[in-house]
Fold this sequence. Notes:
Blueprint: E1 6-10, E2 14-18, H1 44-59, E3 63-67, H2 91-101, E4 105-108, E5 115-120, E6 126-131, E7 141-148, E8 154-163, E9 170-172, E10 175-177, H3 194-217, H4 220-227, H5 230-238, E11 242-244, E12 247-250, H6 252-271, H7 274-289, H8 302-305, H9 316-329, H10 338-346, H11 351-376, H12 381-384, H13 390-405, H14 412-425, H15 434-445, H16 448-466, E13 480-484, E14 502-508, E15 516-523, E16 530-535, H17 536-542, E17 553-569, E18 574-590, E19 597-604, E20 609-610, E21 614-617, E22 624-630, H18 638-654, E23 660-663, H19 674-682, H20 685-689, E24 692-695, E25 728-732, E26 735-739, H21 753-764, E27 770-777, H22 789-804, E28 809-813, E29 818-820, E30 824-825, E31 828-829, E32 833-839, E33 842-849, E34 855-859, H23 872-875, E35 884-886, E36 892-899, E37 902-910, E38 917-926
Parallel strand pairs: 2-3, 3-4, 4-6, 22-23, 23-24, 26-27, 27-28, 28-34, 33-38
Antiparallel strand pairs: 1-2, 5-6, 7-8, 8-13, 9-10, 11-12, 14-15, 15-18, 16-19, 17-18, 19-20, 19-21, 22-36, 25-26, 29-34, 29-35, 30-31, 32-33, 36-37, 37-38
Helix pairs in contact: 1-2, 3-4, 3-7, 5-6, 7-11, 9-16, 11-16, 18-19
The protein binds fe (ii) ion (2 copies).
Amino acid sequence: xxxxxxxxxxxxxxxxxxxxxxxxxxxxxxxxxxxxxxxxxxxxxxxxxxxxxxxxxxxxxxxxxxxxxxxxxxxxxxxxxxxxxxxxxxxxxxxxxxxxxxxxxxxxxxxxxxxxxxxxxxxxxxxxxxxxxxxxxxxxxxxxxxxxxxxxxxxxxxxxxxxxxxxxxxxxxxxxxxxxxxxxxxxxxxxxxxxxxxxxxxxxxxxxxxxxxxxxxxxxxxxxxxxxxxxxxxxxxxxxxxxxxxxxxxxxxxxxxxxxxxxxxxxxxxxxxxxxxxxxxxxxxxxxxxxxxxxxxxxxxxxxxxxxxxxxxxxxxxxxxxxxxxxxxxxxxxxxxxxxxxxxxxxxxxxxxxxxxxxxxxxxxxxxxxxxxxxxxxxxxxxxxxxxxxxxxxxxxxxxxxxxxxxxxxxxxxxxxxxxxxxxxxxxxxxxxxxxxxxxxxxxxxxxxxxxxxxxxxxxxxxxxxxxxxxxxxxxxxxxxxxxxxxxxxxxxxxxxxxxxxxxxxxxxxxxxxxxxxxxxxxxxxxxxxxxxxxxxxxxxxxxxxxxxxxxxxxxxxxxxxxxxxxxxxxxxxxxxxxxxxxxxxxxxxxxxxxxxxxxxxxxxxxxxxxxxxxxxxxxxxxxxxxxxxxxxxxxxxxxxxxxxxxxxxxxxxxxxxxxxxxxxxxxxxxxxxxxxxxxxxxxxxxxxxxxxxxxxxxxxxxxxxxxxxxxxxxxxxxxxxxxxxxxxxxxxxxxxxxxxxxxxxxxxxxxxxxxxxxxxxxxxxxxxxxxxxxxxxxxxxxxxxxxxxxxxxxxxxxxxxxxxxxxxxxxxxxxxxxxxxxxxxxxxxxxxxxxxxxxxxxxxxxxxxxxxxxxxxxxxxxxxxxxxxxxxxxxxxxxxxxxxxxxxxxxxxxxxxxxxxxxxxxxxxxxxxxxxxxxxxxxxxxx
Length: 928
Ligand SMILES: [Fe+2]
Ligand SMILES: [Fe+2]
């Protein structure tokens, strides 16, 4: 790799450094074979050589011009993650090193757009990435750049762009071409005109690759089984299969022979007829592209490029074609395009993705899956149960019954419909058709906020392609650039660009009255894990003086870790995972004074990249304090997390002395989307840096490198598998808190045996006045999960155990609805007296006196994703009706005050626009 790199001496003190990033050798292709790779990567040796040559030449007074195929600096905001193969792998590190070594200009290509982008490194040096389009592809531009290094301390570039038309006629090898091929749109390079052609180009491409491959493998079944371990997957899924006694009724072998038979049918019906498949794909794509997304007609490009319609509102296809022109066309400004501007606005609402979903259901589910696939393919039950097996006896009966019912027409659709009718009339299922189930779940989970998230993602992609402002307008044609060599450019610093501490989490250390653990992320190049800290009183007088407060010690750790996010995140699914390196900093502070307030900031002392200041207030070991509880702030857009920040602001304004925050989990919607973690922390940065947040693992953060312990550092927890969360406990003043991990389950779907053992031991060792448990999956709930297998199993475990262990309150999440039970014991309302108590100007008329039971609360959701409550008739069958059920379609938080032998709880609904609060429930407990 890198063999085609070279250094060329140019006149007037310039040197050209050509860097080879081709991934065409087996040592850096993933597949270990010679194949075409779109992405480019500099090997270590090319990188070291390039830096060395640049440094040496710069020292010797030469001006170094870089050249390579791949971009150093993204030319549109989502290039680096969504369309990542345009940028060279690890481009941040590459451009940092070369720019700091003295390279001010690098000429690149690959992306075909005509654009100049610039970047300033951590050290204040600038680099311009000059990407030039293609002469033989749209928009058929080339550029002439004049460099001038005669002015001390500056390298100036004057750029002029020309169209291929400007040089016509062209004479080449003795032949004159009056009109060389001049493409008018990007789409035409592939198949025809515009965005639709481009999309069809991709369908064609995949059809060309996969159809012959399936044929060559000898059919779909053989193809699938060579591509993946289907049998292994089903073995895992079925866990040995369904057994009656020792007889295996349905196992992997059954399902494999069933799939084989089904694949055979698909081979015959579809693969033998690729035109049919293609027509189906075309129809689907057509209906999606034809969705009208604006009332404003798309007319800007009608005359020149022939798309748009003055008589009707613009479609998705119009928007996509326009975006391609803005991106590649290099000569248009979207600011005056009323259609595009309206598209941005429409994509704020969530209505576009709702239309998209409708089209998908109509064409894909009803049209293709139901009316085509399920109606054409025949269910052959006996294929799953070869004669001679036990199941075959059973199946023969069912099979005969169905054949009689359906007059022999055993299509899946017919079988499913009969099945549903029978099961519905027997009262076994509440749905009459498959679509009933679909619409039920859509109604439950595809909330307005979810649709807004998808719209937000589409809006971000559209604006990313259309907008360009750096360093000049209109794809930077004909500009003059100036690169100062003094490296004195202003370095933009923010948590968002990871130069300043991002995702700052503060947890209690081993002792809430004397220690804290602060963790944060920065970009890979920022290595310092530093803190400035002093008492608040001293800070107000002297600021940070550089010395540590008496007795305070700090230990530091920094590690380089991988994080990722999907290049496109549609909420329900994400695509194109983008992985990158960040530094994870952990700072443990010990020796703080109880009941003291400190002011601190964290960052990198070497570069002077410091966070804003924040405060730490330690526990004072008294018997009175207040804390807040929230749950399920999970969102998908930055602006949705800003709403969450408003809820926290509102809560802390009402309870300015709240000692800490408990979070019952589902902090993010997609655990493996680092951006969502970043937004969650950073939207609340000033608040969360001054507040300890102790969290439970939600099911949405139960995987990969974005589990709970990858975002928070907890001082102390028993040895356990932390991949899906963590269980731990801590003390604060006169209360003991136990945080459970409801993702950590045993084979019966209850909390794992280890966890239950630890819980029993931990709770029985508590000598605190109050014992509070937090977990994600709500044990008592009137939300949609109330009868999930795991919830039922955990409820069975905890109903008796919680009161037995002296747990007063269980704080829960997961269901996004508000519910609060009476004190329960063994799944029944405990007996207790009530009386009226008062605290903080509020009256608690039904204060429970010495209840021999546990109160369960779900504080709905604190973000934008409120779910609907179930009817009480369903939950009444399983447990006593809750004392408070509130249909909260707004964010909620809970506030708990402990004062000696009394506990007061208040829940509030928050108006997201005004921040105004409404009390929705309260209770109190008195221990005499
Ligand atoms: Fe949730
Ligand atoms: Fe959840």
